[in-house]
Write a structure and sequence with these properties.
Chain lengths: 136, 79
């Protein structure tokens, strides 16, 4: 894949997926604590999202950061707009802003589920959509 | 290898009037957390506030500085 193709793929993924997460690893197997916390917040809200692993090719990360102006991974986009990395997403999850932005309810307080609960425990109804194979 | 002191100094000189508290999270000189208070953040979205801080270090974030966790606020206290 050429750099231009990678750039176009990323650009397209951001535009086509309402909730698009670029991360290290996958929601099922995050390869970094920051990526795990960010996908964990989305899992806890039970939203459907697309996730792309940036690790298979270093150029994914280079092109992504060039496009977003954001240097680190993870990066969450909602409706084509960069929302933030782990710090911002975690903060927005805690304040309920993320639920608002996604048009979903906050999970019940008495729910035992932690925001960082592994995706494997999620009900199948709203699983993440893995996109990483498209870049092979 | 960058130190938390160095990061603090660089943030404060790049954003005049800012107060930064920087912590080396692992002691390894590559995972940091910075709490920055500056009136420059007023009226900016959280994304743009964080970009200002990341901008101080350019390519070093993701390079020698593997991770820089940021918390920004204005002197008035509002985020």
């Amino acid at each position: 894949m050429t750099d231009t193709e990678i750039h176009a793929f990323i650009d397209n993924a951001i535009k086509e997926n309402k909730v698009m997460l670029f991360m290290k690893g996958t929601p099922e197997q995050p390869r970094c604590g920051f990526s795990m916390r960010t996908s964990g917040a989305l899992n806890a809200l039970g939203v459907r999202y697309a996730a792309l692993d940036v690790l298979p090719d270093p150029r994914i990360r280079e092109e992504l950061s060039g496009l977003s102006g954001w240097p680190t991974i993870p990066q969450l986009f909602i409706d084509g707009e960069l929302v933030g990395g782990c710090d911002i997403v975690t903060e927005m999850y805690e304040t309920g802003e993320l639920a608002d932005r996604l048009g979903v309810e906050m999970p019940e307080e008495d729910d035992d589920e932690e925001p960082v609960a592994p995706a494997a425990d999620m009900p199948a109804r709203q699983g993440p959509i893995p996109l990483e194979n498209r870049l092979d | 290898m960058p130190s938390s002191e160095e990061l603090k100094r660089r943030i404060e000189s790049a954003l005049p009037g800012a107060q930064a508290r920087v912590e080396d999270l692992t002691g390894g000189g590559d995972h940091f957390r910075a709490e920055v208070v500056s009136d420059r953040f007023e009226g900016l979205s959280r994304i743009d506030q964080h970009k200002l801080v990341y901008g101080v270090f350019g390519d070093e974030v993701g390079g020698p500085i593997h991770a820089l966790s940021i918390k920004t606020s204005t002197p008035g206290g509002a985020p």
